[in-house]
């Protein structure tokens, strides 16, 4: 696959709207999803396409606020706003919506969304609960049945194993690309990293995405890393960030530093997780994988601290920025533990709370600038 560059990833969303339209016209089925706990493998095994629907635009928020409270996370309001105004083609093409009981705001939002489209909600247990694995395995079986009934198909174990192999390979390719930034200077800017990572949820063809990622990695390695990117190395953690909500990454890079890694859901959070093929039952294998996701909705959530600890070292991090979207209680509270960890490693830590507007750009800039002054480089 020749001629792959970052622009190819930036245009994935637009290109895939047309592909999805054609797929639907030919009788294809689409499942809309909002969270990394979604077992894409089950959707792919049914011959359907999973698409990401997380809202990253401020535009539909006023419409959402006609129904939802204003002091709610902007990600939820944006997502609901797109649904309510029917302005997201990916939502429009979705045959049903797959929700999950992660944070309170999202699970209550799904109750309202059922008035717009059919919604299936997965009941997610806390990973630490002794019956969690059994409960989550049953939830995945319930989802398998729902997809089969909804789309009139039979999902065989073999179909699921094939899909797990595909998703495992895609995860390896994504991780390899992210890991390029362990080098100093980094190969990719934070904005480039986000462009690639965010594009994946809009892609209909996973084999094609894997080839694109592998080709991009080859091309990046063929040219030397840019020494101009040798400023402070920042690790971004906290709430998911997407194209349209990248203001903190932009500010960091305008101030001469580089976001070398993102621990959040739009970044590295799930990239170490593979579906183990040694299980007899693919549903049990998937349950093990997805229950390990270190989201702040889990209580407790020790793997996030372990992951962050390792990432800080592996990516030669100089400072950590923890971004909480306004009214996201779980990430906001977990920021205390993250701060403790980062400070124990002798690094500057900055916790930012923001929303999707640009009204706080100046104050964010001042705070980031002050933190960068503390970085020893
Ligand atoms: S942060 Fe948690 S709730 Fe949000 S997408 Fe990630 S796993 Fe899902
Ligand atoms: S950012 Fe926080 S409040 Fe918003 S959807 Fe994710 S977990 Fe929920």
Mind sketching the topology for me?
Layout: H1 6-10, H2 12-25, E1 30-33, H3 40-45, E2 49-52, H4 61-64, H5 74-85, H6 89-93, E3 96-100, H7 104-113, E4 119-122, H8 132-151, H9 157-179, H10 190-199, H11 206-222, E5 233-238, H12 247-254, E6 258-262, H13 282-291, H14 302-314, E7 319-325, H15 329-344, E8 349-354, H16 361-373
Parallel strand pairs: 1-2, 1-3, 3-4, 5-6, 5-7, 7-8
What would you note in describing this structure?
This protein has 377 residues and is an alpha/beta fold. The protein is built from 16 helices and eight strands. The chain has helices at residues 6-10, 12-25, 40-45, 61-64, 74-85, 89-93, 104-113, 132-151, 157-179, 190-199, 206-222, 247-254, 282-291, 302-314, 329-344, 361-373, and strands spanning 30-33, 49-52, 96-100, 119-122, 233-238, 258-262, 319-325, 349-354. The strands form two sheets. The chain has a four-stranded parallel beta sheet, with helices on both faces. The chain has a four-stranded parallel beta sheet with strand order 6-5-7-8, with helices on both faces. Helix 5 packs parallel to helix 7 and helix 12 (247-254) crosses helix 16. The radius of gyration is 20 Å and the shape is globular. The model has no long low-confidence stretch (mean pLDDT 96). The structure holds iron/sulfur cluster (2 copies).
